[in-house]
Design the sequence.
């Protein structure tokens, strides 16, 4: 983190009032709070049926709908003390995804993760890079004890991301979940603070 009044390079891309300490840098990504200016980039990938195939949300239909969803995410984030981040490519400053969580057990600081990425960015290791840094951030600076994630068994790339970021597979519960018009089996992954090694994923914000 920069010191002595020196601001990190991405400071001007944060929403007024946002703090650089809420943002993370990895080799290729800036993870920062969502802001209203993300609507166009968010819509460009969230309208893609393949991106939405294995998530609970439906592909966005219009930019106006994306703006409403974005506003809702920002409000929910603030109201529930969550840590939803926009994934921004450092070289182009395009917002290409989100990573965030919902409480599973707030009292015991247990939350469930979710993430998605624009299709043209798949297969480059970007989400594993983001998730590794995000887990470190949640455990070391936000006091989470356990972070869980689930993926549809038909979406193994998501499980690969979880493993690459250091999460452990916990199994396949027998209950199936109904979404997108079918019964799905969801594989459970988790990471615990006590098991997490020291960070390798974050870079210093001073560049
Ligand atoms: C799932 C998703 C996040 C992956 O992001 P990504 O940046 O492409 O992931 P990475 O490049 O970091 O890693 C993908 C890994 O999955 C592996 N993979 C891809 N397709 C696979 C398949 N069919 N079976 C097994 N592994 C697969 C890749 O080989 C890679 O692992 P490797 O680096 O060891 O080779 C991205 O495809 C996405 O946003 N999908 C739509 C939204 C979504 O499904 N979110 C998850 C909901 S649980």
Sequence:
């Amino acid at each position: 983190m920069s010191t002595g009044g020196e601001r990190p390079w991405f400071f001007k891309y944060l929403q007024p009032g946002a703090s650089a300490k809420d943002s993370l840098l990895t080799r290729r990504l800036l993870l920062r709070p969502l802001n209203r200016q993300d609507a166009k980039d968010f819509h460009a990938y969230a309208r893609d049926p393949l991106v939405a195939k294995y998530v609970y949300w439906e592909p966005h239909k219009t930019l106006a709908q994306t703006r409403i969803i974005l506003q809702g995410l920002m409000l929910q984030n603030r109201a529930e003390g969550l840590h939803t981040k926009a994934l921004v490519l450092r070289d182009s400053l395009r917002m290409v995804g989100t990573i965030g969580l919902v409480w599973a057990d707030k009292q015991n600081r247990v939350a469930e993760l979710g993430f998605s990425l624009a299709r043209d960015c798949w297969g480059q290791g970007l989400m594993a890079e983001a998730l590794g840094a995000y887990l470190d951030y949640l455990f070391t600076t936000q006091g989470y004890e356990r972070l869980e994630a689930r993926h549809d068994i038909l979406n193994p790339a998501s499980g690969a991301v979880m493993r690459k970021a250091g999460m452990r597979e916990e199994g396949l519960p027998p209950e199936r979940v109904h979404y997108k018009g079918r019964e799905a089996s969801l594989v459970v992954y988790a990471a615990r603070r006590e098991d997490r090694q020291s960070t390798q994923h974050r870079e210093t914000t001073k560049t």
Observations:
- Strands lie at 24-25, 29-33, 85-89, 95-105, 110-117, 146-152, 168-171, 177-179, 182-184, 186-192.
